[in-house]
Amino acid sequence: MKKFLVFILLIAAGYFAYDNFLKEKEVVEINASYNKVRESVDIDAPALQARDFSHYAGTVKNISDKTLNNIIVTYLIDAQPSTASIDKLEPGEEKKFTTNPVMLRNMDPGHYLKSVEYDEK
Does the structure show a pLDDT above 80 at 72? Predict the structure, then answer.
């Protein structure tokens, strides 16, 4: 029984050390929406098909206590990178962003947040 309690105590201490010291902390909070746009086409030119474009737009907020510089938010839309760059975010500051538009090859492509890169001051 004593060995079991020591084992449980070691597991709890390991989790505490991981959670407080080793785990990477979140420094930015991103609220974004996926936007899809279709070009208009002239009805007198039926051979032309409208192209679809997509991008993300939203806000990014610094939730850390450090200043972040050169923030690059990268989304993958239809296996193509769509990026937005923000020059500087002070602690608690929130800024709007829009990623560059990507021409879609599929009607309903996969899309997700790939990475958030930044420099700490």
Answer: yes
